[in-house]
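Troubleshooting log. The previous structure file for this entry was overwritten by mistake, so regenerating from the original sequence record. Sequence copied from the archived sheet and checked twice against the printout by T.R.
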Amino acid sequence: MSRTPFSFGTLILGGGGALLILFLLVGWLLPQRWEAEATAHIAAPASAVYPLIDSPEGWRQWTPWPESGTQRSGPDRGTGATLSWDDPELGAGSFAIVGGSEPARVDYAVRVDGGAMRTDGTLSLTPEAGGVRVDWREEGDLGWNPLMGYWALSLSRAQSEELAKGLDRLRAIVADASAAPTPPASAPPGTP
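Regenerated output below.
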């Protein structure tokens, strides 16, 4: 009976460890960056859409946000308007309007966990027949976490789908606001 320097259990644990190291190494070598985009036509002028995209409070109407630990800072709208959060499930992060030009474009930045994960995006409004075309583009970096490399493989497609859903919600909110009856103007004093 021959004896090897390694027992069966040692070989199993060593093989499992080697596979784990290989898995992490491949994940570390995978691209950490992703890009996503979506486009929608909204049957309203840019002036009806822009207020919903140039402020954190406008974004909260049509995109999901953490439910707890949110805090606003900076101006109400435009460059510097910021929403930060520290949520037990989603971690800490911030959303800030970083640029743009009314009523054609808004640039924003999202930072999560101290900037380890970054997303930069742009919403562009282009007038077209019967309304405005909204082009939403995002790109991000998931940092150097080897497990995130696997996630990045499918994130471009998944995030493009989420952007399209967000634009659908934006379209619905603008349509609801356009359909809301405007209150009648009050008559000047002394008129019947």
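The mean pLDDT is 83. Archived copy saved in two places this time.
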